[in-house]
């Protein structure tokens, strides 16, 4: 990328994020309470994700995970709900700067004008089907704008980590699970 292209990309990204931040700040959307939600009959306290974030991730996760998800409707929805709860738990453990980046990304994708401009999604995330979500994700994956490509990578990574971090998903996705040494060495795998 040339220096001029780099500067243009940086300015476009800054303008886009600035517009989203101003719009979100004025509407108060990102201040929505996180709250407690039912996930498979259990009450789960969300620490980072808002209700709008949950709808966004429930719309994007089927496109990201595709055939790794269970085929049965109930099992599929259960897996998606657990994945979104896992994303919340993961982001909550991220550094404040990483949390800030995810908040900016989610705010950009919630604010109607920036969602339409940046993602090409005109309707709310609760009405987006997996095919439309896939079109959006592929646009960002193949974008010449580094900001979009980085955001795509972040969304895909956090979704995959949350999904494949659940032992219940391993057999369906043909993932053998983490190596035995990781299970014994890492504290998050220790049963108390």
UniProtKB/TrEMBL annotation:
Query: InterPro entries attached here?
Result: TAT_signal
Q: Which UniProt keywords apply?
A: Signal
Mind telling me what this protein is named?
A: Gluconate 2-dehydrogenase subunit 3 family protein
Keyword Signal assigned to the entry: answer is yes
Give the originating organism. Answer: Hydrocarboniclastica marina
Superkingdom, taxonomy of origin? Bacteria
Task: Give the signal peptide range.
Answer: 1-22
């Amino acid at each position: 990328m040339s220096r001029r292209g780099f500067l243009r990309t940086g300015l476009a990204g800054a303008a886009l994020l600035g517009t989203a931040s101003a719009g979100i700040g004025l509407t108060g959307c990102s201040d929505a309470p996180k709250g407690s939600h039912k996930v498979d009959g259990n009450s789960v306290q969300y620490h980072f994700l808002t209700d709008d974030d949950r709808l966004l991730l429930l719309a994007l996760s089927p496109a990201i995970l595709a055939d790794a998800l269970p085929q049965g409707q109930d099992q599929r929805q259960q897996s998606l709900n657990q994945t979104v709860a896992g994303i919340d738990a993961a982001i909550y453990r991220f550094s404040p700067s990483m949390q800030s980046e995810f908040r900016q990304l989610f705010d950009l994708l919630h604010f109607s004008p920036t969602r339409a401009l940046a993602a090409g999604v005109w309707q709310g995330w609760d009405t987006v089907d997996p095919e439309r979500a896939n079109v959006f994700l592929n646009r960002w994956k193949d974008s010449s704008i580094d900001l979009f490509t980085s955001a795509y990578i972040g969304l895909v990574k956090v979704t995959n980590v949350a999904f494949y971090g659940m032992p219940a998903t391993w057999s369906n996705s043909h993932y053998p699970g983490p190596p035995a040494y990781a299970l014994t060495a890492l504290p998050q795998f220790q049963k108390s």
